[in-house]
Hints:
The protein is built from 12 helices and 11 strands. It is of the alpha/beta class. Helix 1 (36-47) runs parallel beside helix 12 (342-364). The radius of gyration is 20 Å and the shape is globular. 49% of the residues are buried. The model has no long low-confidence stretch (mean pLDDT 92).
Amino acid sequence: MTTEKIAEQIRFAYWVPNVSGGLVTSDIEQRTSWDFEYNRKLAQTAENNGFDYALSQVRYTASYGAEFQHESTSFSLALLGATERLKVIAAVHPGLWHPAVLAKFGATADHLSNGRFAINVVSGWFAGEFKALGEPWLEHDERYRRSGEFLEVIRKIWTEDEVNYGGDFYRIRDFTLKPKPLNTPERPNPELFQGGNSSAARRNGGYYADWYFSNGKDFDGVIEQLTDVRGHARERNREVNFGLNGFIIARDTEKEARETLREIIAKANKPAVEGFREAVQQAGAATGDRKGMWADSTFEDLVQYNDGFRTQLIGTPEQVAERIVAYRKLGVDLILGGFLHFQEEIEYFGARVLPLVRELEAAEQPVAVS
């Protein structure tokens, strides 16, 4: 089964470790760092090893193993300045940003980076951050309604003059942004990503975003979400790309890869994982159909806090490449990868996994008949 649109080549992004604690909540050694010098070199390594995007995380307070956090938009701008081709996606929270202010920042960032800035709209899972900052914490579907308006407003400001908008959350009156971002026919605005798993998130992705980001999923989970998101897009006569989170453990042998996974889970920081589970599973439970993020995540799933183990990109380079290409054949356009030891594993991925992916993709292309 496919969901119609199949990319000629799947693209790759990586999670920027701008938050301490790495990408797993575990006491296993993680040869990674949240500081800028490490991340500057990592971004350069990633763009030289076949990665198209980097995603800067957003947290504002210490929580669940993440004691220190660099702010996502400023960190993304610094990474853009350190690279030449890599597109950097900054995660942002509606409710903590006004869309017109972010549009102004984004237009400047786009000019400074020659058109490589993007945002990921995160509707919010951590009520404690909003409450600590004195901001209202909305009910689940209301957060996504606000995010839908946020996406609509920022696209209008980036692409239109004399913008007027009267919504429930945002009101814009005769506003024109100058200069606009470096818009082109191929990329008419800086790319807009919508994260989530819930029905409300899927609707936003289909109606308003350029990309929909899913938590980790197996094949059946991907088919369900792709069908839903692209169905919503068709209602609006649009297309949306699909990105999938996955924690990548590629090793010379399958035994070594599986042992690494076992050790990560065995050394999980149980109080931090349980605290995270209590904080986030209300997000899924708060939805009427229980399709929210983390609604059915197990303890083991949450050791990688975006369900990255579920995607099962674990094994030899051949096994990982074959599974990536299988996801592409379902309609996945991009894999958002997390790693245990970012620097060396991104190099390994670029040298050992990516060439196999491209070979498999090329073998599946129809042969031209002269």
